[in-house]
């Protein structure tokens, strides 16, 4: 049967990764994590927020 679903997600601090894995366990759909280069976002919420703005 053709694949019907693909889980595509982005996660900076890995919370969304945990949710994506739960969805993957439940659905058996493949998952694709979107990534940005390490230099794009700092590892700090306030500094990341300034970049978003
Ligand atoms: C700019 C910015 C704003 C955020 N605002 C909120 C918020 O309003 N409420 C919240 O619970 N978390 C907020 N967060 C925290 C993250 O969105 C939150 O921890 C999320 O679960 C991170 O997902 P990730 O671990 O998949 O990257 C914010 C983070 C950033 C960078």
UniProtKB/TrEMBL annotation:
Q: Which InterPro entries match?
A: Flavoprotein-like_sf
Taxonomically, which superkingdom?
Bacteria
Q: What is this protein called?
A: Flavodoxin-like domain-containing protein
């Amino acid at each position: 049967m053709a694949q019907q679903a693909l889980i595509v997600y982005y996660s900076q601090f890995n919370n969304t990764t945990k949710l994506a894995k739960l969805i993957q366990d439940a659905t058996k759909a493949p998952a694709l994590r979107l990534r940005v280069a390490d230099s794009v976002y700092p590892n700090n919420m306030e500094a990341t927020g300034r970049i978003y703005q």
